[in-house]
Amino acid sequence: MRQLWAPWRLEYIQGEKPDGCFLCAAAAGGDDEAALVVHRGLRSFVVLNRFPYNAGHVMVVPRAHRARIADLEDAAALEVLRLVDRTLEVMDRVLHAEGYNVGLNLGRAAGAGVEDHVHVHVVPRWAGDTNFMPVLGDVKVMPEYLRTTWQRLAQGFAALPAPRILSAPEQG
Prior knowledge:
The protein is α+β, with helices and mostly antiparallel strands. It has a single domain, classed as 2-Layer Sandwich (HIT family, subunit A), CATH 3.30.428. The protein is 34% helix and 17% strand. The chain is built from six helices and seven strands, in the order βαααβββαββαβα. The chain has helices at residues 7-14, 22-28, 32-35, 74-94, 133-137, 146-159, and strands at residues 2-3, 37-40, 44-48, 58-62, 99-103, 120-125, 139-140. The chain has a five-stranded antiparallel β-sheet. Strand 2 (37-40) and strand 3 (44-48) form a beta hairpin. The longest helix is centred in the middle third of the chain and has 21 residues, at 74-94. Residues 1-13 have low confidence and may be disordered.
C-alpha cells in the first residue's frame, strides 16, 4: 500500500542509507527529533515508525541488538514491556486513542523489516480509522506530520511521573 509522502520522507528514501542497524543508530543518541526518538529509558527507547501503519505508530526498542526477546537480559525485557505500558498511557493522554494493536513481527514472512533487532510495535487505533482511500487509491492518509506527532508524544512522556527504576544497566 502506498502512503502520501512528506518531502523529508522522499529525501530519506532517495538518500544514501546508513550502514548498520538504524535502531542501534537511534539507540546511540544524538538528535532525538531527527531520529524520531520520543522517549529513552535505561535499557530501551520509543521511536516513531517512519512508515507508520497509522498516525502515532511507534516501536519500543531495547538498546541491545538482539533478535528475540529471549535473547535479552531479564531487566531489559521487563523494561521493554513496562515501556510498552507507559507508551499506551501517553497515547491515551495525548492522542486519545480508543484501542491499540501491540505486537512483534518476527521473521521476514511475518513482516519484519528488521529481523535481527527485536522491537515491539504499538499502533494506536480509533473507531472508524479506516476509510475508502486504501481501497480506491492504494493510499494511506495520515492526519498529521511525523514531526508534529513526535513533539506531542515527547511532551507526553516528559509529563509522566518518573518510572520506578529497576537498577542501572550492566556495562559492557
